[in-house]
Amino acid sequence: MRIVEGIEARGTQHCETTALGVLLRHEGLDLSEPLLFGLGSGLSFIYWDAKSMEFPFLGGRVKPFELTRNLAARLGLTLQVEETGSPRKAWQNVSARIDAGVPVGLQLDCYHLDYFRSKVHFGGHVVAMYGYDERHAYLVDTAQQGGAVRTSRDTLAMARAERGPMTARHRSFSITLQGRPPSWQDQLIPAIKACADAFLAAPIANLGHRGIEKAARQVPKWLLRTDEPKRNLPQAAELMEKAGTGGALFRALYRDFLGECARLIDDDRLRTGHRLYSEAAALWTDVATLIARAGEEDDVASLDRAGAVLHDLSRIERDAMRALSEM
């Protein structure tokens, strides 16, 4: 058995920030999950629907692994990423790191993992791996999935080899600090402004505040979009609240990030952003509740109300990001 010593297997709410927390604590940098999410400029929005999709998807963060790249670049961390089409080479990349006493991040499809409670394909899932033996790999996942967990090496190989939306080619990564820990406090305002600017200047109407406005127009039609509303609508609501988002489609995490920043930075624009995202987080939970009810009760009125709330959310988040972009 090979186990990296000194690992604090702290499962938090979101998969990518959970893995980042494990890797960075091993390097001596212990940041809260909201700080990891915010310093990585992780908040976004996408309304995604395509003919090949069974049902539309509401996404609340940047695409998989972009948060990690953002965080590493902003804090001056050394991020080593390895990808390969060979399962054998993929295992060698990971085992060599573990043998050297370094935990490794993995991007994979969670569907195949032994311990995963919801068997849904998602190729953007991220875990931290800190050990292995002849049969099993030892991982840290979110608190919802059990924190410190294990899966068979065979199922891990299947999860890493899966191909489809958001998957990567057996991606593994490690992070090291260069010398002393970075002065992350100096990067709070640049991270906030970068996130706000990207949100406000999204290149297509499916993204950012315009994407939320599109969702406001489309969600009221969702009962006509599916033959299985009792399954698809409650599942969409659960993905918004419980699928590693930290609640409220990542808005609760970003609210908490802005709250931590407001204790360090005296800025009325920051306080405005924090207040508006506190309001937005509560409203996103209301939207999820209305969508679930619409599916369970075949209730068009609940979707109409969800659309009205989404219209308000587009304005609230636009105003919040405008204030934050001016910091």
UniProtKB/TrEMBL annotation:
Domain DUF4872: 155-324
Domain (Butirosin biosynthesis protein H N-terminal): residue spans on this chain: 14-142
InterPro entries: BtrH_N, DUF4872
UniProt protein name: BtrH N-terminal domain-containing protein
Species: Nonomuraea purpurea
